[in-house]
Each structure stands twice: as C-alpha cells, then as structure tokens.
Amino acid sequence: MISSFLVTIYSVFLPISLPVIGGALLKRFKGIETKGLSALSLYVLSPALIFETLEKASITSNEVTVTVAFCLLNVIALWALSAFAGKMLGLSQTEKSGLALTTIFTNSVNYGLPLVLLAFGQAGLDKASVYVIVQIIIMNTLGVYLAARSHFSAVKAIKSVFTLPSVYAAALAVLFRLTDFQLPEGLNTGVSMLSAAYAPLALVILGAQMVGVRESGASAVSKRGFWSGMAMRMLVGPLVAWGLLAILSIEGTLFAVILILSAMPAAVNAVILAEEYDAAPKLVSRCILWTTLASFIVLPAMIGFL
C-alpha cells in the first residue's frame, strides 16, 4: 500500500504539482489575475478538449447511461445529506447554502481531468468526459439555485447553461459520431493543439486560485460549518459515490474514474456563486483551500488502492 502511494505521488501528483506551484508563485509574487485565463480555459480550451475526447472516446451507450444516472442520484443524495447535516448542526441559512455548494460540487474540471488523464490515461479521460459535461450543467442550474435560494431565477439558470461552449462542443461531437463525419486534417490538428493546452493551463489556474482563496478566506469562519464541510466533501462524498457505484453495478475503469472524480475537493467555482449570492463565501473559500490540500494525501492513497 505504501509503495503504491509513493508510486502514485511520483508518477501522477509530481507532474501535477509543478504547474500548480507555478500558478501559486505567479499569484503570490506577480499578482496574476486568473479571470482572463479562466475565460480562455472555459470558452476555448475546455470545449476543444470535450469535443476531441467525446468524438474519439471509446465509451459505450451503457456507460453514458449509467454515468448520467450516477450523477443525478449522487446530486440528490448529497443535497439531502447536506440539508440534514445543516439542520442538525443548527447552521444559519447562508451556511446551509455554503455547505451544500461545498458538498455537492467538486473540482472535476480544473483538477479532475488532468488527474484522470495522468492516472488512467486516455481511456480514463474518455469515461470522465461524460461525467464532466453533466457536472457543468448541474453546476450552472442547481448551483445557482443553492446559492441564490430566495431570489432564484429558473430562467436565468437555464440560460446560463446555453452560454457554455462545452455543451455545444459535446453536442457537436455526438453528432459527428452518429454521422461518421470527420473534421478536415487542418482543423483536427488545431483542435488537438487547443485540447493539449487545457491540462497545464487548468493546473496553473488552480494554483493561482488556491492562493487567492487563502487570501480572501482569512476571516473567522464557524467551526461547525467548516468541519461539516470538510467531512461532507472528503468523507461522506466518496462513501456515497462508492455505494451508488455498487448499486448501479459499475465496475472497472469507469468505477475508478467516477469514484476519483467524486472524491475531488470542493469546486473553486463554488466560491464565485457564494460571493455573488452571499452564501457564506468565507466558509466556502476555506473549505475549498483545505479540501484541496487534503486531496494531495487522500487521492494518491485512493488511486494506489484502486
């Protein structure tokens, strides 16, 4: 077990740590702003990665079905458990919203995709692509609702999904697969170049965002809110995922990929929603920072075990 842990650290987390450290240093000493880089990643590089992966993915219709089913069941289960925990701990309404954001949404895009690619190769990335698309849609609908609650607009949430190029890239990739259409070689090369740039840039952004989260989350946070957020994301989340995977009879590489993505730290984007709708942003920020730091110990052990 120890040898597997060390091998995973060396072969997977050492390569990941270099761009993360680079992004953290740029933020700390050069004050780099990630907004422009995040836009580049979200609107250009991520769609290219999703399109290329889905178009060429070696994934069956059954795997797509069970992945979507898992995502929906997992969200319902975690939503109910976070609501129960918030009520039992006597958290305020804003802290309940922050706990839900921390519990349900993981950093499966900026952190999860590069990790899966290094740990499981292209086969793992193929299977992860469907999970990520569903998570992006849920984040921009349910995420808005959880953060806003009283002033939630269903129309706004639905519209936000259709502003995301990754959704269109996924639809286009599915259409190309169904019609056996191939991009011209020149365009295909360009898409591949953009796709290859996604992982290192996403990790640089992650490193910079971690420093930014640390700086913005320095004020006092409820201990009950913080520790419940840590426990829900790093312990309850993976256990619920494991149980659902067993119920759905998901096995092999798909099992390992979904479990790892479900055990990711809290999504960095959650703090954006928390700040916009005043859903305990300091609590969410602190949970993001510490779940990310904890993941550098928890995830290598999980990958080594799997």
CATH topology: Na+/H+ antiporter like fold
The helix/strand series, from N terminus to C terminus, equals HHHHHHHHHHHHH
Return the CATH architecture. Answer: Up-down Bundle
In the CATH scheme, the class would be: Mainly Alpha
Describe this structure in words.
The chain has 306 residues and is mostly helical. The protein has one domain: Na+/H+ antiporter like fold. The protein has 13 helices and no strands. Helix 1 crosses helix 5. The longest helix is centred in the middle third of the chain and has 32 residues. The protein is globular, with a radius of gyration of 19 Å.
Write the layout of secondary structure elements.
Layout: H1 2-30, H2 35-56, H3 61-88, H4 93-104, H5 108-139, H6 142-148, H7 154-161, H8 165-179, H9 185-216, H10 223-247, H11 252-262, H12 269-277, H13 281-305
Name a few traits of the molecule.
single chain; 306 residues; Na+/H+ antiporter like fold
